[in-house]
Amino acid sequence: MPPGLTDDGARAARHIRRRHPRRRHPRLGIVLLSPHTETRHSVELVTSGRFGYLLEDRAFDVEDFLDASHRVAAGGSALDPEILSRPLTKRPRDDPLSRLTTREREVLALMAEGRTKVGTSRRLRLTDRTVETRIGSILAKLGLADSDEDHRRVLAVLLYLDHRS
């Protein structure tokens, strides 16, 4: 997207989101297609809900594109797995994610992609109950206690995005 051919699309999405807040336009969803992996604005956008960020190559896979579009239209988020595989920031020495098992990291990665419990259980071939148990374990190991003011699953995903290598 001109003029800079870098993070212009993400900046435009951020501008749209700020100019049209959810309270005024609760159904406004944004699916950003980009040839670049840009994470600076993406974390803020994905936490606001109804946001998808796919690399342009992913849009050629009609199933992936439609899946992401449906999740955003339903109020969720969708991030390209390639974006999730890249570090956002330097990993701190005391990484809370190191406490997670491999399977718990897989569940957390699918949560970060915007998958539901059912979607995660299908993808990993686990029961819904097992996925829920893993999520509970993830939240406990990351020290995310029950709160009326915070959404623990979103906080876990943000932690994942900020601390992955």
From TrEMBL:
<keyword id="KW-0238">DNA-binding</keyword>
<dbReference type="Pfam" id="PF00196">
    <property type="entry name" value="GerE"/>
</dbReference>
<dbReference type="InterPro" id="IPR039420">
    <property type="entry name" value="WalR-like"/>
</dbReference>
<dbReference type="InterPro" id="IPR000792">
    <property type="entry name" value="Tscrpt_reg_LuxR_C"/>
</dbReference>
<keyword id="KW-0418">Kinase</keyword>
<protein>
    <submittedName>
        <fullName>Serine/threonine-protein kinase PknK</fullName>
        <ecNumber>2.7.11.1</ecNumber>
    </submittedName>
</protein>
<keyword id="KW-0805">Transcription regulation</keyword>
<keyword id="KW-0804">Transcription</keyword>
<dbReference type="GO" id="GO:0003677">
    <property type="term" value="F:DNA binding"/>
</dbReference>
<dbReference type="InterPro" id="IPR016032">
    <property type="entry name" value="Sig_transdc_resp-reg_C-effctor"/>
</dbReference>
<keyword id="KW-0808">Transferase</keyword>
<dbReference type="GO" id="GO:0006355">
    <property type="term" value="P:regulation of DNA-templated transcription"/>
</dbReference>
<dbReference type="GO" id="GO:0004674">
    <property type="term" value="F:protein serine/threonine kinase activity"/>
</dbReference>
<feature type="region of interest" description="Disordered">
    <location>
        <begin position="1"/>
        <end position="21"/>
    </location>
</feature>
<feature type="compositionally biased region" description="Basic residues">
    <location>
        <begin position="12"/>
        <end position="21"/>
    </location>
</feature>
<feature type="domain" description="HTH luxR-type">
    <location>
        <begin position="93"/>
        <end position="164"/>
    </location>
</feature>
